[in-house]
Design a protein that fits this description.
single chain; alpha+beta; Immunoglobulin-like; 7-stranded mixed beta sheet; 5-stranded mixed beta sheet
């Protein structure tokens, strides 16, 4: 009886324990969707100048939220306190290699500031690819370590890891000529780096740099390049341009990569392809022939001719005039000329009575898809009459001569000037000798 009672008590106690455990488990799993404390967690990143922090919801979903816009720059999840130096650092993309070969790259440093500065480099050879673990959506995994390991070095959105273009892993430092370089203001320097690569795969160069005057570190990456596990001699499918030549990549038997010319491009090479010649539509080509000068009179309607030859295809050309004398000229507005044909066009010029004598310039233009133009001159002569400028000059000269002659005659007749009273001395100067003159007069008497 005692054993039965004890067994019954133990059975009841076991049942209570099971009920308690089941209820607790049910409560835990019932609230599984609320296994995270909603709020910010300590993960930061930079998107441009925006500083973002990771927000976690109660159901363990996470998203990046902007918490600050940096005044100068954002790097490694922190805002910079001062303006960074203006510098461009760019690694060259190494050519594709094969495993167990050395990879080479050249780092270009360009200082855009006016003052010089010391720059420090850390150059790495990193594996590149899309090897990102996706965070599962089950509550157990959400509450475990998936997000921590994923967010630690990747960007995630909606429980999936983004394949960031700058994703790089297993980075190994490369050997460089120099890692502390002084670059003058506006100058540039080049640093060569290398590292032996053993395994095949996709790689990229990672460069971490900072200035002595600005401790914040920045990172740039090269494009992805391939290291192959084996080589087979022959042509590859890659092409490139080299001046006006198109080249194709070849692999030699010793696994060296060479570019060989496969085509000459007479019109140039762009984007690894020869530029095709531009085929222009067939159009007319006008050519005008005309005199340079036309003599015309005022208040008269005059005509003149010029020719237009079509050296292209059959076309219709518009005929237009310009210049100072354009308003005087009338001609057909257009003309159709066959291929190789020449047409004579008659134009009329009505010179107004108020036109000034001299030369007046005008132009004639024939145009369609192409254009030709010539310059001509309408010359208006001086008016021809009794009192022209030449006649007036001649008349004035005659009058002057006549006046001089009359004046000389009047002086001679007045007796004020007499030749018989003058003699010439030994030096050719006239001398008056009144006594000798009187003696000669007495002898004559």
């Amino acid at each position: 009886m005692l054993k039965r009672k004890t067994f019954l008590q133990l059975s009841i106690l076991s049942a209570l324990v099971l009920i308690t455990v089941f209820g607790t488990a049910h409560a835990v799993f019932a609230d599984c969707t609320d296994c995270c404390d909603e709020g910010y967690i300590d993960y930061y990143r930079c998107v441009g100048r925006e500083r973002q922090r990771l927000w976690e919801f109660s159901d363990c979903r996470r998203e990046w939220r902007t918490i600050e816009t940096c005044s100068y720059d954002c790097e490694d999840g922190s805002c910079s306190e001062c303006a960074p130096p203006r510098v461009e650092v760019s690694p060259s993309k190494p050519s594709d290699r094969f495993e167990e070969e050395t990879v080479y790259t050249t780092i270009k440093i360009r200082n855009l500031d006016d003052r010089g500065d010391w720059f420090n480099l850390k150059v790495y050879l990193c594996e590149a690819g899309r090897d990102c673990r996706s965070c599962e959506s089950s509550c157990e995994t959400e509450c475990d370590t998936c997000h921590e390991s994923c967010y630690d070095y990747h960007d995630c959105d909606n429980d999936d890891c983004d394949n960031d273009d700058t994703f790089a892993r297993n980075c190994r430092e490369m050997r460089c000529d120099d890692i502390n370089i002084y670059v003058t203001g506006g100058g540039r320097k080049y640093v060569k780096c290398s590292r032996f690569v053993k395994n095949a795969g996709n790689y990229r160069i990672k460069v971490v740099f900072w200035a002595d005057s600005y401790s914040t570190r920045r990172t740039v990456y090269s494009d992805v390049f391939e290291v192959r596990d084996e080589c087979s001699a022959g042509a590859e499918g890659d092409y490139r341009c080299f001046g006006k030549y198109r080249q194709q990549k070849y692999i030699d038997e010793d696994c060296d990569v060479r570019w060989k010319i496969v085509e000459y491009c007479p019109y140039g090479c762009e984007s690894a392809a020869c530029v095709q010649p531009t085929v222009l539509p067939k159009v007319g080509e006008p050519e005008i022939f005309m005199r340079m000068r036309y003599e015309m009179e005022k208040c008269k309607l005059s005509s003149f001719t010029f020719t237009v030859r079509n050296t292209g295809e059959t076309d219709t050309f518009s005929i237009e005039t310009g210049g100072n004398a354009a308003s005087w000229i009338e001609m057909p507005p257009s003309v159709t000329i066959e291929k190789g044909e020449t047409k004579v066009i008659t134009a009329y010029a009505s010179v107004p009575c108020s036109a000034v004598a001299g030369e007046h310039e005008f132009t004639i233009t024939a145009s369609s898809k192409t254009t030709d133009s010539r310059v001509g001159v309408i010359r208006i002569p001086e008016e021809q009459g009794l009192f022209t400028t030449d006649f007036a000059n001649y008349l004035a000269m005659v009058v002057i001569i006549f006046v001089v002659f009359v004046a000389a005659f009047a002086v001679f007749k007045s007796g004020w000037f007499r030749l018989d009273r003058l003699t010439f001395g030994p030096k050719g100067k006239p001398e008056s000798r009144p006594e000798e003159f009187k003696t000669r007069q007495a002898i004559k008497m």
